[in-house]
Each structure stands twice: as C-alpha cells, then as structure tokens.
Specification:
Blueprint: E1 3-9, E2 16-20, E3 23-28, E4 33-38, E5 41-49, E6 62-66, E7 71-77, E8 84-86, E9 100-105, E10 108-112
Parallel strand pairs: 1-7
Antiparallel strand pairs: 1-4, 2-3, 2-5, 5-6, 6-10, 7-8, 9-10
C-alpha cells in the first residue's frame, strides 16, 4: 500500500516546489495543501522556492523513512527569511542548529544529521 506526505503551505505569498530524491514532486501554492503518494521507503526531502524574491532558494534536505500505509503531515513556510519544513507540532525539521533524528509519527522516521 502507498504512504502519503501531506504538505501545507502556510505562507500567504510564496509558492514552493517539493523535491523528493532531487525530483520535483509537487508545487504548493499559498495557503493550500497538496498530497504526494509514495511507495514505502527512504526519501531525501527538500523544498525549493518558486519565486525570486530574495529567499534562499533551497532548504536543507532531510531524510524521511516511511513505513507502509503511513501518512505524514508537514507544513512549509519561510519564517526567518529561509524556507522551513515543520511537523504538526511546529518543530522545524530542517533547522540549521541542533540535531534532529527520530520517530515523528507512527511509522515515520526523520534524520537531519547536517546540523
């Protein structure tokens, strides 16, 4: 069975392109939600800004391991002038400080060793 990642763009003005393993998988327009179906497995996830308004164009990639038939909800926003990927609790998964590694949802493991 497929797994899913739901992306919510909480920005009021910026479009984002979701990259899974360096391939564009979805574009999320402001204040919209997009769902991507995936086979269970490991993915490198990053987000690219779709505009040219001075924001860094790429965020740091995170490693996501999805179990079978699981759903992960992520929020994308450009707080602090950089594109951030947040879990449902508001923790930034691609932060530039600290180390994040662990289970963030049932059957979903995140690694961000580049801190």
């Amino acid at each position: 069975m497929a797994s899913k990642i739901i992306f919510s763009n909480i920005s009021r003005s910026d479009d984002y392109t979701v990259l899974l393993n360096d391939h564009a998988s979805a574009t999320i327009t402001p204040l919209k939600t997009t769902m991507v179906d995936l086979e269970p497995g490991e993915y490198e996830l990053s987000v690219q800004g779709s505009n040219e308004e001075g924001l860094p164009s790429m965020c740091k990639p995170i490693q996501v391991r999805m179990a079978d038939n699981r759903t992960l909800h992520l929020k994308i926003d450009s707080r602090n002038f950089a594109i951030g990927i947040y879990d449902e609790q508001g923790t930034q998964l691609n932060a530039t400080h600290g180390f994040l590694c662990g289970t963030i949802a049932d059957g979903v493991h995140i690694d961000n060793p580049i801190a």
